[in-house]
Amino acid sequence: MNMKSLREYIKEAEEKKIAIGHFNISNSEGFWAVVNASKKLNLPVIIGVSEGERDFIGVKQVKALVDTIKTEGLPIFLNADHTYSVDRVKEVIDAGFDAVIIDGAEKSFEENIIMTKESVDYKNSKNPEILIEAEYGFIGKSSKVLDELPHGVEVSENTMTKPDEAAQFVKESGIDLFAPAVGNIHGMVKGGNPKIDIERIRQIRESAGVPLVLHGGSGITDEEFKQAIEAGISIIHINTEIRLAYKQGIQKSLIENPDEIAPYKYLKPAVQAMQTVVEKRMALFAGL
Ligand SMILES: [Zn+2]
């Protein structure tokens, strides 16, 4: 079966002014929640696994899981989310992931470029079809519900990505996708997340010349999502909301069925709760 590549789906999303959802999973429950949502809405989707998430499920095992669905012709892609060393980038390129994020956001501009360029060179030597994403501008590292903004994150003109820096970063590193800091943060803040700088997205997309990825999607309002997509965002990451749905789903299920010991029974409502979150976000990002 001749399936379109992730690069082609992203290009198509840009043309249609929609975005592809990127949803993190830690186990097979999360996997089915995302796959079922994608099947139901007939939309392409990216499954994300951070270093911790893929260590839990297994790097080769999660690749094998995604492959079983791909062979059915479904547009499910696998991304190695925030990867903090070149060695771990090489590991997922060797494993055949569709995309990987080299995260040097806490490092200096120069150090970030060096590790990103090394990752790009490696994938070009192995498989140029794999997409390398990098971010410049720090937005925190959490996927939790936070009382306040994460340490080191201050949303101001100074800490957000500047369009000319984005252009320089992309040019020097050769990346395929760029994740800017535009007021987005990782995690959800109890009193409400900061506002997204829509005009900055437009300027960065123009200057960077590659598709943009919005991280820290949990906690952003529907209206802001629509504006961000219209301004040039092609992929949106959601994690915290799914984690919350899963945990609350399990808690509720255990309380309601205290004598149930079959995991596939008491976990089912939690999978459904994750699927509901994913479907809602996918539909919004696709303009449905
Ligand atoms: Zn992220």
UniProtKB/TrEMBL annotation:
Sequence positions that bind Zn(2+) 1: H82, H186, H215
InterPro entries to which the protein is assigned, alphabetical: Aldolase_TIM, Class_II_FBP_aldolase, FBA_II
Note describing how the cofactor binds: Binds 2 Zn(2+) ions per subunit. One is catalytic and the other provides a structural contribution.
GO MF annotation, one: aldehyde-lyase activity
Cofactor list: Zn(2+)
Pfam families: F_bP_aldolase
Family matches, as NCBIfam families: cbbA
Name this protein carries in UniProt: Tagatose-bisphosphate aldolase
Organism, as annotated: Candidatus Zambryskibacteria bacterium RIFOXYC1_FULL_39_10
